[in-house]
Amino acid sequence: MRVVGPIWCFGIIVGRWCRVRTLHWTHPTGDNEPRQERCCRLRSTMVANAATPTTMAGLPSAVFLAAGKGDAQALTAWLDESGGVDARCAEQRATLLMAAADGGHKATVRMLLQRGASVNLQASFGGTALMIAADKGRTTIVQALLDAKADASLQNSNGITALMAAEHYKHTATAQLLRQHAKQQAAEAEVRAAASMARATAAADAMAAELLGEEAAEKEAAARKGKGKKERARAPSTAATESAAAAPLAGPPKPAAAREKMPDEP
């Protein structure tokens, strides 16, 4: 399968900021120039044109070149003067972090990350600093970018990932690191999914218990209310029954003459 696609902006060509650096199985124009020779030619052209001061999208060419060379002093001076750590070259949208990763300067990469460089920014063709480091087999830089939460699942416009680039160019250590990272990410995702499911189950159980408790309380309240009504309904009839039962025992009242016996009666 022939996969062709530019990853990121490489340098200054014919006075214009950023030419496409290609990740190519074969060159997109059909040029069979070896990859290493082409990269060297592009670098030579870039350096030759660096004498012409250029600023595009807030990123001076000298600063971009400094990042590619690992010139931390020049970068720090520019950043301290309110330069943007995520400033991009205009055409292909490459960043200082991408340039430092391509140059293999781990200390510069770490400095830019500490300054707040966005690790997952993508160039015009979808390339990231991680893809560039993987393409070059920069294993220690790949690790630093992964530690900074670089997303190894991102793809460029041709569907190429950092792992695919490392595997294609037979950077064994880099590819192994990316595979281990992918396995770790998958395991962590499973743990998060299981934890989320457990929380959801616990929340559902708690809600069910609460509803059952409310239902039981309503039934108990209804039972007490019904019992109270029955007791109030029985109270008058009980009083009437007791009164009726007591009446025969008392008997009818006797006349006054019958109650008192006269002395002159025989």
Please tell me the overall pLDDT.
76
CATH class call of the domain at 4-172: Mainly Alpha
What overall form do the CA principal axes indicate? Answer: rod-shaped
**CATH architecture annotation of the domain at 4-172:** Alpha Horseshoe
- β content, as a range? 5-15%
Number of strands: 6
- SSE string: EEEEHEEHHHHHHHHH
Largest sheet: spatial strand order: 1-4
- Count of alpha/pi helices: 10
Distance from first to last alpha carbon: 150 Å
Task: Estimate percent helicity.
Answer: 55-70%
| Helix-and-strand structural type | mainly alpha
Uncertain parts: 1-56
Cα gyration radius (Å): 45 Å
At the fourth level of CATH, the homologous superfamily of the domain at 4-172 is: Ankyrin repeat-containing domain
- Main beta sheet: 2 strands, antiparallel
